[in-house]
Amino acid sequence: MSKLANLQVGQSIDSIELAPVSRMDLIKYSGASGDFNPIHTIDDAAKKAGLPGIIAHGMWTMGNLAKLFTPYHEEGFVKDYSIRFAGMVFIDDVVTLKAELAEKNDDVLGFNVVAENQDGKAVIKGTINFKLV
Predict the structure, then answer these.
(1) Confidence check: pLDDT of 1 > 70
(2) Rounded to 5 degrees, what are φ and ψ at 72?
(3) What is the pLDDT of residues 38-60, one digit of tens each?
(4) Buried b / exposed e across 68-78, counting CB within 10 Å, b at 16+?
């Protein structure tokens, strides 16, 4: 693993492929977050809402993006985080998390981040600023 401070603009950190999304992942997240909207856990509720099936909480996917920086916790911390939801995540989707260094400003590294489904379609796009200590 290379240190973040040594990265050059345009370089990426190691991507992470999450296990296929399970109903249990979403049930656990509902309890942890307090978001009990049934479109995230009950098939009939999702279909009644016009969805093709249960969808993952957007914040579940967003939270997972921060895992990209866990290996670098001794080097600093995520200073701020901005995303936009670009698609839905369904049960059994395999989400891949990616980050590329976009800019270096003194002790703050700006990364473009994305979460993609198994078809390579972005479900979240955004930026993370990492503060080196």
Answers:
(1) no
(2) -110, 20
(3) 999 999 999 999 999 999 999 99
(4) bbeebeeebeb
